[in-house]
Amino acid sequence: MVIPLIIGLFCRVYLILNCPTIYYFDAYTYLDAALKLLNNGSVKFSIGFPFVFTLASAIKTLSPILGTIDASRVFSTGCSLLIIYILYRFGEIIGGKVLGTLIAIIASIEPYFISYAIVPHNDVFTIMVALLTLWLARSNWRYRFVICPLLFFSAVLTRPEFYVIFIIPLILLLSHRLRSHNLKKKSIFVVYLTTIYILPFILLLLFIVGSYTRFSIVERIVLFPTQELLINTAQIIFIFSGDFLANLTFALLPAITVMMLILSTVASVETIPTKRVPIAVRLSSLKEIKSVFCSYKALLVLSFLVAFIVALATISVYAYSYKIVDGEILVNFSLTPRYIILPRIILAFAFAYPFSWVIKKCLVE
Amino acid sequence: MISPKRLGIYLLLLSSLGSIYAYLAFSSVNIAFLYSKDGSKSLGAFAEASTWLAKNLSKNETALVPMSSVFYVLAPELRNNLMPFKSLWDSVDVIYRANTTIDEVTRIRMYLINLLKTDSKIKYIVRDWGDPYSTSIFNLDSYDELMSILRETAVFSFNLSTNWSNKITIYERVQ
């Protein structure tokens, strides 16, 4: 666990020392809003305010020692290190310490994650809060039903598209422990989900997203999920270097992971005994397979897979800038890198799996 | 005891996968450093411009700036001396949209020209490359008098690792 944190911290501290100026325009907007909040108490409850509140609190705490700008950068770096830690813990559950360590290392050196981690930008903060929500949702902490919505909507009010990306994984993880509960408890859970997670989203759509004027949400949903944009997003996510062959090799790693998972699934299904074996033995084998597929490991893999696919689609709909000239939509095919941080971080799971498998085999034998 | 053949396969797998991961790490860190340093260079021009304005603006003078929050953070003492380009759009009651028309931008440009002629407080105008509220005004193909009532006073240019270069120009209003 210590190794990824040290690597992540080293990269970030090195960059902070070499880049004296905060380098994203939006970061200044958030910093300015946080300073206004601290200096005159002026609050603007628009998109991003949970981040501004947290940033202002961090600046107030740290600025006497570090100064305003460095305090904001340290806050963001802290959020990024927490992401690395949470990813390690998720990886540990899915495939043990080796996989956890590799996932955390690969995520910690994601180029745009490093770059955005040293400026007070809302992306790193939102990813941290969203992952923390998932982490708490999978726990058996009794207050998770109260804390998860608070954290989840902090993320959503900072980056609205996170609702679409994380709502299914969140419901999957929250509902997992309810499988054995009776109908009454399940009904209460459905009411809880509807009132806490669905209704606020409808209000959000009606009152906040409707106020977007620069880029109409209706135009985006109706016109943007094209195959061309989806492919473009996927290509951008997989470009890690200027070298075509290297990018192809990197893209093969997740493909190998998917193949390995399919093969291991087929292998486990093949262990179901044939008809000659007594029914009790067959049922116990089926139970064993069910316990694998319905385990936390499988659920986490499914959750991150869903989050990745939905993130890909959401980015294609939401993140491209466009102009309308003479009634024609002109889409700018370049993508602001901050949008690909989340899918790249999730991709670290698929990148890490083949290497962890080989290391584990070596260690076992 | 592991057989030599198996050990060989594992070593081969480990070293080949290890070298792929090492290259991935190298590329990632390299991109991060280049990208961040480039960003720092371009915003460094804003830092230089804000220092210049802090030195050259007196108490009763105003500068029209793009990306006002950048200047507010970099030079908080200038907060009362800065006027964002967005305020021009608000004054003309035009919202920046994907389908903003040339007519709307022309109206804002005309408003700016009138403002420069009537408001003697405005001393400097800062032009950047990214703020849509200012670039759409300056990039408009127009044969009006805007550029003739402005004189280039200071330029802060930069060149990125991708060979892309740009600048921040500070114009002074010609009396």
Helix and strand layout, with pairings?
The complex is a heterodimer of chains A (365) and B (175).
Chain A: H1 2-18, H2 25-40, H3 49-66, H4 68-108, H5 111-117, H6 122-137, H7 144-158, H8 161-175, H9 183-207, H10 217-223, H11 227-238, H12 244-269, H13 279-293, H14 296-318, E1 322-325, E2 328-331, H15 341-364
Helix pairs in contact in A: 1-4, 2-3, 3-4, 4-5, 4-6, 4-14, 4-15, 6-7, 6-8, 7-8, 8-9, 8-14, 11-14, 12-15, 14-15
Chain B: H1 4-56, E1 62-65, H2 68-74, E2 82-84, H3 86-92, H4 102-118, E3 122-127, H5 132-138, E4 150-159, E5 165-173
Parallel strand pairs in B: 1-2, 1-3
Antiparallel strand pairs in B: 3-5, 4-5
Overview of this structure, please?
The complex is a heterodimer of chains A (365) and B (175). Chain A has one domain (2-364). Chain A is 76% helix and 2% strand. Chain A has a two-stranded antiparallel ribbon with strand order 1-2. The radius of gyration of chain A is 22 Å and the shape is globular. Chain A is an all-alpha fold and 365 residues long. In chain A, helix 6 runs antiparallel to helix 7 and helix 8 (161-175) runs antiparallel to helix 14 (296-318). The model of chain A has no long low-confidence stretch (mean pLDDT 84). Chain B is α/β, with parallel strands linked by helices and 175 residues long. Chain B has one domain. Chain B is 52% helix and 18% strand. Chain B has a five-stranded mixed sheet, sandwiched between helices. In chain B, strand 1 (62-65), helix 2 and strand 2 form a beta-alpha-beta unit. The relative contact order of chain B is 0.14.
Largest protein interface, residues of each chain: A-B, 52 and 43 residues
* Approximate helicity band of chain B: 40-55%
Number of helices of chain B: 5
* Cα-atom radius of gyration of chain A: 22 Å
The end-to-end span of chain A amounts to: 24 Å
Sheet with the most strands of chain A? Answer: 2 strands, antiparallel
Helix-strand string of chain A: HHHHHHHHHHHHHHEEH
Number of domains of chain B: 1
Strand order of the largest sheet of chain B: 2-1-3-5-4
Order of helices and strands of chain B: HEHEHHEHEE
The overall average pLDDT of chain B, rounded, is 88
Fraction in helix of chain A: over 70%
